[in-house]
């Protein structure tokens, strides 16, 4: 039985981690919740009781076996090394350590063996990367992916709880004929799409858009993997969707792809367009597995395949993936 901590417990992902631990009946002897001083004192429900949220300090990790961090890169960079030195294994949801060559970057369905090399810090990949690779990696193993062109349709939950509230507020403002107020996004998100997720880089892509290539290379152990991505924020509360056009080294057919994906962990094939059956964000919300559909031969690539994959950003894209890592870690602790 592990002693467990959650940093950023009152945020959207942190609260989801608490629910996932309870839902999966994770074997722990103690759960401690941490957040900023502003949130300290808040109580969260867990297994029929209430757990008070404590202010995060340098002594918070004494006696803890595992801590999931969901508080952003700043707190992770400051406190994760402190936790690691105290003997606590950190599973970090931020981008702080993802590209550190000494830190495993793990999707349990893809590279669980990477956990054997951890030095008390493990990185949870970007949410869009996870959702995409859960579908792409089984195809890569069979057909050898060379490059992808992708467009993501990302829910506001990826920005956090305040963004969810902003979307709700803007919808109400529009319905009531009031001026639309903006605090989180540079433009109105209600009834709109914004082709801008994260900050822009010198190459014209955003940091978010480069994550699929950079993180994908590390997770799949595929240094030549190429990905050109456009990330778009859409007025959906939770669940990210990604349209992928992939080129492979070996010939691939839709039928062959469906056979591979039907046997892959963490992904379900939902693909009957003649009956209007395909993955939808509204249907995947709250579900552990990702779904893939619209599988078809890509008409621009010789060995190409196009597909549509959807996953709950707060679950498989963040909280669930982190808890699944913790479940595997139990074998090594």
Description:
It is an enzyme of class 1 (oxidoreductase). Substrate binds at residues 154, 233. Keywords: Amino-acid biosynthesis, Diaminopimelate biosynthesis, Lysine biosynthesis, Methionine biosynthesis, NADP, Oxidoreductase, Threonine biosynthesis. The active site is at 127 (acyl-thioester intermediate), 240 (proton acceptor). Phosphate binds at residue 98. There is one protein chain. The mean pLDDT is 97. The protein has helices at residues 12-23, 73-85, 127-143, 161-175, 207-219, 254-262, 281-284, 315-329, and strands spanning 2-7, 28-35, 43-46, 49-55, 66-69, 89-92, 121-123, 145-154, 226-233, 240-248, 267-269, 290-297, 304-311. It has a seven-stranded mixed β-sheet with strand order 3-4-2-1-5-6-7, sandwiched between helices. The chain has two domains: 2-124 and 318-329, Rossmann fold; 129-314, 2-Layer Sandwich (Dihydrodipicolinate Reductase, domain 2), CATH 3.30.360.10. Helix 7 links the parallel strand 11 and strand 12 (290-297). With 333 residues, the chain is an alpha/beta fold. Helix 3 packs across helix 5 (207-219) and helix 3 crosses helix 8 (315-329).
Fold blueprint:
Layout: E1 2-7, H1 12-23, E2 28-35, E3 43-46, E4 49-55, E5 66-69, H2 73-85, E6 89-92, E7 121-123, H3 127-143, E8 145-154, H4 161-175, H5 207-219, E9 226-233, E10 240-248, H6 254-262, E11 267-269, H7 281-284, E12 290-297, E13 304-311, H8 315-329
Parallel strand pairs: 1-2, 1-5, 2-4, 5-6, 6-7, 8-9, 11-12
Antiparallel strand pairs: 3-4, 8-10, 10-13, 12-13
């Amino acid at each position: 039985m592990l002693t467990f901590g959650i940093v950023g417990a009152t945020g959207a992902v942190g609260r989801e981690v608490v629910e996932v631990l309870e839902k999966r009946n994770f074997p722990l002897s103690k759960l401690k919740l941490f957040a900023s001083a502003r949130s300290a004192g808040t109580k969260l429900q867990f297994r029929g009781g209430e757990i008070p949220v404590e202010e995060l300090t340098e002594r918070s990790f004494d006696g803890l076996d595992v801590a999931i961090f969901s508080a952003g890169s700043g707190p992770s960079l400051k406190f994760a090394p402190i936790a690691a030195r105290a003997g606590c294994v950190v599973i970090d949801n931020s981008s702080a350590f993802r590209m550190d060559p000494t830190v495993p970057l793990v999707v349990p369905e893809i590279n669980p063996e990477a956990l054997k090399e951890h030095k008390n810090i493990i990185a949870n990949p970007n949410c869009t990367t996870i959702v995409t690779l859960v579908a792409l990696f089984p195809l890569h193993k069979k057909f050898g992916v060379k490059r992808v062109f992708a467009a993501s349709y990302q829910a506001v939950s990826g920005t956090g709880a305040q963004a969810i509230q902003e979307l709700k507020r803007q919808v109400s403002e529009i319905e009531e004929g009031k001026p639309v107020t903006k605090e989180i996004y540079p433009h109105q998100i209600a009834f709109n799409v914004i082709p801008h997720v994260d900050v822009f880089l010198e190459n014209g892509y955003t940091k978010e858009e480069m994550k699929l290539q950079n993180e994908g290379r590390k997770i799949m152990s595929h240094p030549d993997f190429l990905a050109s991505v456009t990330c778009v924020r859409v007025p959906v509360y939770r669940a990210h969707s990604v349209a992928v056009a992939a080129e492979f080294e070996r010939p691939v057919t839709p039928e062959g792809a469906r056979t591979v994906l039907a046997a892959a962990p963490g992904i379900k094939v939902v693909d009957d367009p003649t009956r209007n059956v395909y993955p939808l964000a509204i249907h995947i919300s709250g579900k552990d597995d990702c779904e893939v559909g619209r599988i078809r031969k890509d008409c621009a690539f010789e060995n190409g395949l196009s597909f549509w994959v959807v996953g709950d950003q707060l679950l498989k894209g963040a909280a669930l993936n982190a808890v699944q890592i913790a479940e595997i870690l139990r074998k090594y602790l």
